[in-house]
Every structure is written in C-alpha cells, then in structure tokens.
Amino acid sequence: MFKIRHISIILFAMFIAFNASAQRKVRKPIGYGASAIYNFQAEGIGADLRVRIPTPVNNLYVVPEISYYPPFNRYHELYAGGALQYDILRIRSYNFYLLGAAYYNFWINADDYAPEGKKKHNFAPEAGGGLVRNRGCWRPFIENRYDFKWKEDNLRIGIYYYPGQCRKNTRREKCPTVKGI
Fold it and tell me: What region does 7 belong to: left with phi over 0, alpha with psi -120 to 50, or beta?
C-alpha cells in the first residue's frame, strides 16, 4: 500500500534536486509543459501538467507531474509524482531521453471494480523514453511509457514552454556590396 512516507521521499528528492539546481552559477532553463495522453490498454485519454527541472548532473532532469484521466474513460484516475529523465542522444535540435518514474495513483472509480479487489490508492512505477526539442521557447515532445503496476503502455504528446528562451533570428542579412558606377 502506498503511504505518506513514499510521497514524502519523492517530494524530498525532487526538492533536493531543485535546490541543487538553483544554486549553480550557470543555470539551465526550466520548462513548463502539458501533454495529451493515450492509454493503449485501457483505451483512455487524459492530460498532464509537468515541469522539467535541470539538475547539477549533466543531461539529467527532474520532472514532477500531475496526470488526470477524466470520468468519461473506463478508469477515472489521478496520478501525482515525478520522473527522472536522462538525455542519451542529441541529434541536431532534438534530444532522445530515457526516464524512470514513480507515481501515487488515486483510482477514483475503483469501487466500480470492487469485486476484483482493486485498491483506490496505489504506487505506480513507470519507465520509458522520449524525444524533445532542445532549443527555443516552445519545445514539443513525444514520450512512450510502460506502467509496471497496471501493465499498461501510454503515449504522451505535448509541449514545454521555456520563458526567456524565445529569441528572434539573430542572423543578420548581409547586404551585397555595390561596385563602382
């Protein structure tokens, strides 16, 4: 059973990572994002809100998230927790990353499935990978995850916003030289 102690450990680890990141002299930007989720096994759709926080370890990010599957789905759920994302490969303006995550799962309509002995409060570990743009203020991403608790696969497509990273094209147009008349 998922306890308050587990939530405290997750939040404490995210706080330490964020605090260490904030004390660095050269700060990488923090991204604020949202995504649409499709769960293949449950055939449900949901949405999430997240923050991508860089850590002092190169290419490692802490990503606290809240995900919600509305009541029109078969399973009405709320997830809260966080992921560690590690960029493994950079190709031009995109990064491929791997992730490991741990979430508190509140299954809101679990009582509808009481004969199956399902619990309302659960711990859901996940692993997966994704692709994210690595520059600009609007950074789209796509991510696939596997939930080990429910043995489900889900796809997330979303976007991060990085304040202060929007820059106009800095290349200046060169005027051709005019040779004598």
Answer: alpha
